[in-house]
Structure formats: C-alpha cells, structure tokens
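Issue 218. Parser rejects a valid record. Input:
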Amino acid sequence: MKKFISWNIDSLNAALTSDSNRAIMSREVLNTIKSYDPDLIAIQETKLPAKGPTKKHLEILEELFPAYDHVWTSSREGARKSYAGTMILYKKSFQPIITVPHICAPDPMDLEGRMLTLEFEDYYFTTVYTPNAGDGLKRLAERQEWDKCYANYLADLDKKKPVIATGDFNVAHKEIDLKNPETNRMSPGFTDEEREGFTNLLNKGFTDTFRQIHGDVEGAYTWWAQRVKTSKINNSGWRIDYFLVSDRIKDQVVESKMVNSGDRQDHTPILLEIEI
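Output the parser choked on:
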C-alpha cells in the first residue's frame, strides 16, 4: 500500500526559516506530515525564487526529511517572481521519471511553476496548484481555459497508465464543499464556471477520492480564510484540495482524509492511502 500527503504550504521559505508564530505552526504541521511516513509529499505554493531552494532551505529539508529526495519547479522569467511553485518529496528508494508539464495554458500560467509529474512503473503521480480566478473574477476566463487544458493533460496521462492527481484545485465542487454556498456563488472558487470545469475533469474518467470514501458527509473542509480569525474555530471552511484517481483504480483507495493542522488556518494537508 502507498501513502501520499499533499499540502498547500503558503510559502516554504517562511515555514522553514521564519520565527513567526505562523511559521512555528507550519513546522509543527511538517512534523505531523513526517509522522505519517508517506511515500510522497506534494507541496504547493512554495513561493520560492526561480533558482529554487537556497542552501539553507536544502539543509533544513534534509534535517526534516532525511529519507526523501525532492524535485521542485518555481515561477520563472515571464511570470511573477517568487510566486506559486510546487515541490514533491519522495522516498530515496524511488527512481521516478520527472516532468515539469507545459499544458498550453494561457500566458503566463505555464511559467508559474504550477505542476510537477512523477512517473512510476504502475502509475503517474502529479501535483497542481490551480490558478485562482482572482479578485472580481478578473482571471476567470483564463481559469476556464486552464481547466480545459489541465483536464486534457490528465486524460492523456490516463491513456498510458493510472493517474493520481493531487493539490490545491481552487474550487469547491458541490454546495456541501463549503460552509456558506449561498453567499459565495460569485466568489472565486465557487462560480458555476469553475465548478463545471471540475465536473468536466471528473467526467474524463477521474474520481474524487474523499467523496468515494466518505460519501456526502458535510462540514469536511481543507481551507479556512486567514483573514477571518474565527473561520477555523467556527469551521467556516471550503474543501478545495483533492486527491483524484483514475476511475479504474478508485476501488483500490483505502483512505482519503484531512490531516489535522491544529490551530493553523489556511490549508490543511490531505492524505491518500491506496493499494497500488
């Protein structure tokens, strides 16, 4: 059985090097992730510069995760600096084929370090940090194009071997995936267009593993707004982080759940256990 964890960390640099209370909580979450002994750890929104982790970052990562190698991609020339970015840590016994996908998304999305894919003998593992539609939905049209390109990319992978896709998809798919659907219908992440894009992705042959295991349970979220101090206390959250798998391996999923991140608001890690 394989065990995977995914987390939007909202700045790897801050989590590793800052002394703020939030950074301390972030390191506690990293230690929680480590305690699960996952085979792979996908991290989104690293916010590292184009050159990637510094020497200090690498030293801290080696200290925290000595059993893992890692691969990263960052926002590069043509896109905002130290923006988005993804990383995957994998057990040193693995030898994956590593790809930084280019999915022909609207500029500059393919330059923002939003995707990494690892190919193994029996499956693909890919992580994504999906673009946000932006304040006032100013990036909604580009987001819709991204969703189409991304769905086609996963479908192409799926033709070759099963896919495990994870990350921050920046969409609450159904009304039960956020606390206050009625007041958020025009909010980024819950527009009809974004929800339709996610439905289109699933219809290409993929399963939302959390719903596969837990059905229509309510009140299960992966993100709570930092700007609202009581959002996590009141569990006024959104489920926008997912583990998706190819439909043909959905019955091999053993568990798909949230990992407790304590008092830290923003995203919480998610975990997948699968017989593969």
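Fixed in the parser; the record now loads. Residues 85 and 113 are 4 Å apart (CA to CA).
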